[in-house]
Write a structure and sequence with these properties.
Strands 4-3-2-1-5-6-7 form a 7-stranded mixed sheet, with helices on both faces. The chain is built from 11 helices and 7 strands. 38% of the residues are buried. Strand 3 and strand 4 form a beta hairpin. It is an alpha/beta fold. The chain has a domain of 149 residues: HAD superfamily/HAD-like (Rossmann fold, 3-Layer(aba) Sandwich), CATH 3.40.50. It binds magnesium ion and zinc ion. Zinc ion binds next to helix 8.
């Protein structure tokens, strides 16, 4: 039988667990001139977030070697490793939910000497071009992303209805449905702006160091 879970932590990767945003930085540097128009179409609701990803990143001419050089420059949030250690020591399940890509997360774990479970989109290389597939989409959520964080969190809620589910994120596009589905949402950047605009309760944070004592308090409740 599964052990009772009192608390489970879901954490966005780009701009939350890491300082830089891998996908959007690569898109800014390497994607074609169609990117602003694709973003405008996303903002007008004409295409989904995943369709935007496909327009901008699928077929991107970028070799593993070029990506490797870029991944070597990515830094973790100053509290990222401490958060992993805290979760491990307390027996709190921790999972990265990322609208980024599995190949990059696999390599970043090796480069940074950390291990985490994750859900992400799929990236493979086809003659030095990116080929993408969505990781965990939802036909009902409305987020339109490749990894619907709400769907992932609700799946865990069905298994562990007793647990407090925490989501930590920074992005209006990829984190909103997860933040709304969680019992407690930690937010910064555009996610914090969007949650405030909607009048939703959330906890502000700057680095993951800010989150740990508040998780400690949740666990003690
Ligand atoms: Mg993010
Ligand atoms: Zn969703």
């Amino acid at each position: 039988m599964l052990r009772a879970v009192r608390l489970a932590v879901f954490c966005d990767f780009d701009g939350t667990f890491s300082v830089q945003d891998v996908g959007s930085t690569l898109a800014q540097r390497h994607a074609g001139a169609e990117r602003p128009e694709a973003w405008a179409r996303y903002e007008r609701g004409e295409i989904t977030a995943w369709q935007y990803n496909m327009k901008v990143l699928d077929g991107l001419p970028l070799s593993r070697t070029e990506v490797e050089r870029f991944l070597e420059t990515i830094e973790l949030d100053p509290g990222a490793k401490d958060l992993l250690v805290w979760c491990e020591q307390r027996g709190v399940p921790f999972r990265i939910l990322s609208d980024g890509f599995d190949a990059n997360l696999d390599r970043l774990q090796e480069l940074m000497g950390v291990r985490f479970d994750y859900d992400a989109n799929h990236l493979r290389y086809e003659a030095d071009r990116w080929r993408l597939a969505p990781g965990f989409p939802s036909s009902t959520c409305g987020c339109g992303t490749g990894v619907c964080k709400r769907r992932r969190i609700e799946a865990v809620r069905a298994e562990h209805p007793e647990a407090s589910l925490v989501h930590i994120g920074n992005g209006r596009v990829s984190d909103l449905c997860g933040a709304l589905a969680a019992d407690v949402a930690f937010a910064k950047d555009t996610l914090a702006i969007e949650l405030a605009k909607r009048g939703e309760a959330f906890e502000r944070f700057q680095t993951l160091h800010d989150v740990i004592p508040r998780l400690e308090a949740l666990l003690a409740e």
